[in-house]
Amino acid sequence: MADMQRGAGREEPAGKPTPRAAAGVDYTRNGNDSGGVGPKLLKATDVAAKRRHVNRSEFIRQALQRHLKHLHELEMEERERRAYLAQPQREEEYRPWQEVASWPEP
């Protein structure tokens, strides 16, 4: 077996990279196939996933979905902000609403 190398749970002929190694996944850094995630973050992920009764993959999937949704919301807010800067609201558009929304004098 001197001419074989281990990678991702199976052996490949020496000199031929495993698919994960060819894709640039560094699973030798901390002894697991975590894609370069440090052991502390990996442990915290596992603890949080267990509390939510899901596995690590599902927890990460949900976290990514929430983060991507958050990024989309930030992008939409920025687009709206730029639109208002490009075409500011005129006073006659908001003045009637201010009068209705103001508190009456005692």
**Coarse morphology:** elongated
Number of domains: 2
Compute the CA-based radius of gyration.
27 Å
List the secondary-structure elements in sequence, H or E.
EEHHHH
Q: Helical residue percent?
A: 55-70%
The number of helical elements comes to 4
What distance lies between the first and last C-alpha atoms, to the nearest angstrom?
91 Å
Give the tally of β-strands: 2
Major sheet description: 2 strands, antiparallel
Derived from helix and strand composition plus strand pairing, the structural class reads mainly alpha
Search tags:
mainly alpha, elongated, two-stranded antiparallel sheet, 106 residues, disordered N terminus, 2 domains, 4 helices
Task: Compose a concise summary of this entry.
By secondary structure, the protein is mainly alpha-helical. It contains four helices and two strands.
Polypeptide structure, described:
The structure is a single chain. With 106 residues, this protein is mainly α. The protein folds into two domains: 36 residues, no CATH class; 50 residues. It is 56% helix and 8% strand. The chain has four helices and two strands, in the order E-E-H-H-H-H. A two-stranded antiparallel sheet has the order 1-2. Helix 2 crosses helix 3. The chain starts with a strand and ends in a 5-residue tail after the last helix. The relative contact order is 0.05. The N terminus is likely disordered.
Secondary-structure topology with pairs:
Elements: E1 4-7, E2 10-13, H1 19-22, H2 39-51, H3 56-86, H4 91-101
Antiparallel strand pairs: 1-2
Helix pairs in contact: 2-3
